[in-house]
Amino acid sequence: MLSDRFILLTGCSGGGKSTLLSVLAERGLATISEPGRRIVADELAGDGRALPWVDMQAFARRAVALAISDLEAARHFDGLVFFDRGLIDAAVALEHSGGQKAKETLGNYRPYAQRVFIAPPWQELFVGDAERRHDFDMAVQEYHRISRMLDDLGHTVSVLPKVSLSERADIVLSECGVLSP
Q1: ∠ at Cα 117 (62, 179), nearest 5°?
Q2: How far apart are CA 13 and CA 10, in angstroms?
Q3: 123 band by pLDDT with thresholds 50, 70 and 90
Q4: pTM of this prediction?
Q5: CB of 31 within 8 A of CB of 58?
Q6: What number is the average pLDDT over the span 17-43?
């Protein structure tokens, strides 16, 4: 199942995806926040067993389940819905952690629009924090894994340029047909 309404923002950790999503939300568009950040916050408040630095496979399984739940919930929105990461990211993380192959996790499920927006590594933006404990090199490796999977799945990838947030948002909305170029 493919939804042309569901727009995936993915790519390098610390590449500005969540901030871009905030700008899109401020412009009145429907957005779904990153599953991983929500899981980490929940785990830090609980027993912490599914934190990515404690049990990456458990974290990735939760991310897959939450991404599927997000997709179901997004069906109730009208118009475009922008996702900060999603099922593809979670499937790639699960495979990388030694779980099942990403293509097995995804099966025939193709929930996002053909065009996917990917944030490239941008060291000047990258900041570690209580929820992002990996370093920039690990983020770059993750970016390459996600890029390969998007290619394998046949997505049209639009690399977000390293420009201001407003310009990034305008580019995304223009490519989605919401703004005139």
Answers
A1: 125
A2: 9
A3: low
A4: 0.89
A5: no
A6: 91
Q: Any residues with CB less than 8 A from the CB of 180 and at least 6 apart, and which?
A: 174
8 Å CB contact between 6 and 81: yes
- The amino acid present at 166, given as its one-letter code, is S
**pLDDT, position 61:** 93
Question: Tell me, what's the pLDDT at 1?
Answer: 46
Burial class (CB within 10 angstroms; exposed 0-12, middle 13-18, buried 19+) of 145: middle
The more confidently predicted of residues 179 and 146 is: 146
pLDDT at position 57 is 92
- Cα gap 79→144, rounded to integer Å: 30
* CA–CA distance, 129 with 20 (Å, rounded to integer): 18
**Chain centroid offset of residue 121 CA:** 14
Tokens for 181, please give them: 């170029």
**DSSP state string for 55-86:** -HHHHHHHHHHHHHHHHHHHTTS-S-EEEES-
The CA distances from residue 40 to 50, 99, 133, 136, in Å, are 8, 19, 11, 19
* Cα-trace Rg, the chain: 15
Q: Which amino acid is at 177?
A: G
- 168 CB neighbour count, 10 Å cutoff: 22
